[in-house]
């Protein structure tokens, strides 16, 4: 991706900090979900799924490189996307709790992917008209990939929900387990307000209606009951994570931590 | 190779062949491709199923040793390259199972034979990947050895196999270059990285030589497969070629091939080198290698744990079919 280099000093620092934070939210969601998807490589229920999940992970890691690359550029401290990914501890990660949920079984993996893809699609669509051309450019590229992710995950949720008794039961259980982690995707905080005010990104709350209609339509076709209003967990986007993230990072960052400064 | 110790059926002398078999052999000798719908000796079909099945199984089991490092890849770019590679291997498995299906055996049947231990996969994937340098060594040596065998197989007599090989070879040479690139980085890196690279070569050298299978001087099976152009070179020819190609590459990296007897032999125009430990090879093939239990166990677990998923999709397809039938009835 070619990005225009901007003089970091030209951006007011409060705005800059919020922008960097927001870019890390975007990048970290991709990184952590990509990591989870990649855990299936060679272990999924069918060869086609091995290929699809590796491909999805690949797309997400690629998107993460763009978002964190831009975060590094906006931050202007000479860090790289790799340094942001590999040298932060869990408290500095900004991904939603949803994406760090464990794979558990293929049903939960697909449900997590679907709930996320439906949100991802909503936000990318809006980001294409971001006031920041770099953001708009990344979003336009990612949208094409995510459209395919959503098509695939929605299709599988429908087929497995409206499938055998067991597949239905598993999808129901997955929905119940994961739905309480979706609310965080639509909460607005100071960072979001700043991004919306600058025209860089939509307010998360504005994405809820679109997401709801996608999710409701798919769940209905899947013959799965919508969980309705349930208690929602929060914390990921301000760095308060579940215990799972620490283990993801311990694994992901191992080489960078064990051999500081080495070039790979 | 990806297909080691493939037993071939047949081995008839020309005098024992029927006129049909003679005509078939003559087509192969002329370099014609045999296509799925055409007549072929039963032995040819069975031998091909064994070889292509083993090759396909090697591709999918081959996802595991490298998949082992995806979540620990040291940079985002390395992670992406490794993911793409493992995805390619799954794709190779898919082409090969599809090509084998043209011989009248289903993918599920082949999988079942893998899981029950009736069919094998390459011995190389029963060795562990212990450090990041192993991602380099596997690409460089294992994909390198695979290419050695698969480039000639692009000219194999069975059309679908030959076409699968042509697609696969392009990707394998990428894999080899990427693996060598990892080795270059490691060798130009810190002393610890260089030591990791040497250690990876030490551990993967002999298992890579084993990939070509034992010396086939006295193998009748091999002769029949060569006559049918299912096998294009002898194991020893390919192994020699591999050593001759790899030794200068190791030297360029500044690494030492772990063989005291390795030296250039001017007379034969190739290297002399030590044979791998064939006793170890046969143990690995028999299921006693360092990772046999984990590798096969992982595949069986993936298959068993995924049964509900595959059944669920079938159930959905069944329901859709019923719904369409009901609609047709209502319309009449
Ligand atoms: Fe791909
Ligand atoms: Fe391959
Ligand atoms: Fe390969």
Any overview of this molecule?
The complex is a heterodimer of chains A (about 260) and B (about 325). By secondary structure, chain A is mainly α. Chain A has a single domain, classed as Ferritin (Up-down Bundle). Chain A is about 65% helix and about 0% strand. Chain A has helices spanning about 15-40, 45-75, 80-85, 95-100, 105-125, 135-160, 165-180, 190-195, 210-220, 245-250, 255-260. The two termini of chain A are about 20 Å apart. In chain A, about 50% of the residues are buried. Mean pLDDT of chain A is about 95; it is low at about 1-5. Chain B is mostly helical and about 325 residues long. Helix content of chain B is about 65%, strand content about 0%. Chain B has helices at about 20-30, 40-60, 65, 75-100, 105-115, 135-155, 160-185, 190-210, 220-225, 235-255, 280-290, 290-305, 305-330; strands at about 265, 270. Chain B has a two-stranded antiparallel ribbon with strand order 1-2. In chain B, helix 2 (about 40-60) runs antiparallel to helix 4 and helix 6 (about 135-155) runs antiparallel to helix 10. The longest helix of chain B has 29 residues, at about 160-185. The model of chain B has no long low-confidence stretch (mean pLDDT about 95). One fe (ii) ion (FE2) binds next to helix 4 and helix 7 of chain B.
What's the short story on this structure?
The complex is a heterodimer of chains A (264) and B (332). By secondary structure, chain A is an all-alpha fold.
């Amino acid at each position: 991706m070619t990005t225009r280099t901007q003089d970091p000093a030209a951006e007011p620092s409060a705005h800059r900090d919020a922008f960097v934070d927001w870019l890390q939210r975007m990048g970290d969601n991709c990184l952590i979900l990509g990591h989870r998807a990649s855990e299936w490589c060679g272990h999924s229920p069918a060869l086609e799924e091995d290929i699809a999940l590796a491909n999805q992970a690949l797309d997400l890691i690629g998107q993460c490189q763009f978002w964190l690359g831009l975060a590094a550029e906006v931050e202007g401290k000479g860090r790289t996307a790799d340094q942001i990914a590999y040298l932060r501890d869990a408290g500095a990660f900004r991904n939603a709790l949803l994406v760090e949920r464990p794979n558990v079984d293929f049903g939960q993996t697909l449900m997590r992917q679907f709930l996320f893809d439906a949100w991802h699609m909503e936000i990318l669509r809006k980001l294409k008209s971001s006031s920041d051309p770099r953001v708009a450019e990344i979003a336009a590229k990612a949208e094409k990939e995510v459209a395919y992710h959503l098509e695939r995950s929605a299709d599988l949720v429908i087929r497995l929900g409206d499938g055998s008794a067991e597949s239905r039961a598993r999808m129901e259980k997955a929905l119940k387990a994961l739905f309480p982690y979706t609310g965080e995707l639509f909460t607005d905080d100071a960072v979001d307000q700043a991004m919306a005010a600058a025209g860089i990104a939509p307010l998360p709350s504005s994405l809820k209606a679109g997401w709801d209609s996608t999710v409701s339509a798919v769940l209905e076709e899947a013959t799965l009951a919508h969980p309705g209003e349930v208690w929602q967990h929060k914390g990921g986007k301000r760095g308060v994570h579940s215990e799972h993230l620490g283990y993801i990072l311990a694994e992901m960052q191992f080489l960078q931590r064990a051999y500081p400064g080495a070039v790979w | 190779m990806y297909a080691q110790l493939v037993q071939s059926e047949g081995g008839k002398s020309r005098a024992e062949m029927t006129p049909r078999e003679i005509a078939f052999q003559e087509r192969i000798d002329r370099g014609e491709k045999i296509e799925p719908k055409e007549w072929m000796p039963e032995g040819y079909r069975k031998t091909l199923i064994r070889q292509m099945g083993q090759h396909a199984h090697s591709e999918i089991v081959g996802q595991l040793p490298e998949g082992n490092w995806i979540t620990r890849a040291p940079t985002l770019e390395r992670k992406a390259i490794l993911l793409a590679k493992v995805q390619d291997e799954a794709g190779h498995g898919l082409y090969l199972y599809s090509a084998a299906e043209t011989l009248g055996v289903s993918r599920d049947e082949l999988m079942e034979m893998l899981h029950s231990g009736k069919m094998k996969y390459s011995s190389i994937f029963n060795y562990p990947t212990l450090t990041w340098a192993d991602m380099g060594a596997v690409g460089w040596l294992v994909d390198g050895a695979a290419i050695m065998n698969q480039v000639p197989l692009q000219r194999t007599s069975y059309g679908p196999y030959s076409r699968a090989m042509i697609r696969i070879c392009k990707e394998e040479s990428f894999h080899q270059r990427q693996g060598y690139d990892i080795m270059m980085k490691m060798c130009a890196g810190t002393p610890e990285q260089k030591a990791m690279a040497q250690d990876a070569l030490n551990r993967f050298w002999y298992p890579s030589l084993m990939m070509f299978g034992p010396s086939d001087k006295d193998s009748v099976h091999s002769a029949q497969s060569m006559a049918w152009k299912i096998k294009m070179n002898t194991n020893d020819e390919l192994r020699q070629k591999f050593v001759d190609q790899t030794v200068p590459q190791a030297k360029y990296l500044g690494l030492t091939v772990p063989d005291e007897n390795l030296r250039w032999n001017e007379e034969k125009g190739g290297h002399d080198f030590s044979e791998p430990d064939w006793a170890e090879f046969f143990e690995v093939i028999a299921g006693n290698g360092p990772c046999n239990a984990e590798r096969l166990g992982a595949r069986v677990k993936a298959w068993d744990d995924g049964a509900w998923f595959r059944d669920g999709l079938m159930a959905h397809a069944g329901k859709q079919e019923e719904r369409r039938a009901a609609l047709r009835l209502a319309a009449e």
